[in-house]
Amino acid sequence: MTPIRRRDLVVLTAGLAVASWLLVRAYYGELPRLDWWLPLPLAVLAVAEAFGARTLRIRLTALREARAAHIRGGAKPPTGPVRPVEPMLVARLAVLAQASAYVGAVFTGIWIGVLIHVAPALRRLQAAGSDTVTASVGIVCSAALVAAALWLESVCRVPPEDSDPTEGVSA
């Protein structure tokens, strides 16, 4: 797997911002009401991925320290038991992170397009006030999902081998 290119996420976000702005501009009167809680599932997913990245980073760090202590022999071993990390779990989390980064970029672009249309219309449209709040919350939640996904992806990367490669799988 190759890491996500940030440029691809930016291009996707910008393209969808323009497309959604054009669609919202054309069909704003026909859209259903945009409630403030609509983007919250993205925030829940962002928090879950950030928590998963933190937990995985702690477990992988403990596992690497235990392996280093075992190889060196004289190094201080970890204080508690080290739970091994399944390599397939790390691979699945890396795939989840990549998919979530693209989903977050898509929704960031969509919410930016909505905000570009409704923010200038605050004084002349009554519904634009609540839609501006919804679009702002959507941008924050979507960007948080992208950030959490990129962090999870970076945690899932295999570190480069030292000068003397160790036996076994390094996670």
Task: Explain this structure.
The chain is mainly alpha-helical. The protein has one domain (6-27, 37-70, 85-156). The chain has 4 helices and no strands. The chain has helices spanning 6-27, 40-72, 87-118, 128-156. Helix 1 runs parallel beside helix 3 (87-118) and helix 2 (40-72) packs parallel to helix 4. The protein is elongated. The mean pLDDT is 87.
Task: Spell out the key features of this protein.
single chain; 171 residues; mainly alpha; 0% strand; elongated
What's the end-to-end separation, in Å?
14 Å
Share of residues in strands:
under 5%
In helices, the fraction of residues equals: 55-70%
Question: Shape, please?
Answer: elongated
Q: Total strand count, please?
A: 0
Uncertain runs: none
Mean residue pLDDT: 87
The gyration radius over C-alpha positions equals 22 Å
Write a concise synopsis of the structure shown.
With 171 residues, the chain is mainly α.
Topology:
Blueprint: H1 6-27, H2 40-72, H3 87-118, H4 128-156
Helix pairs in contact: 1-3, 2-4, 3-4
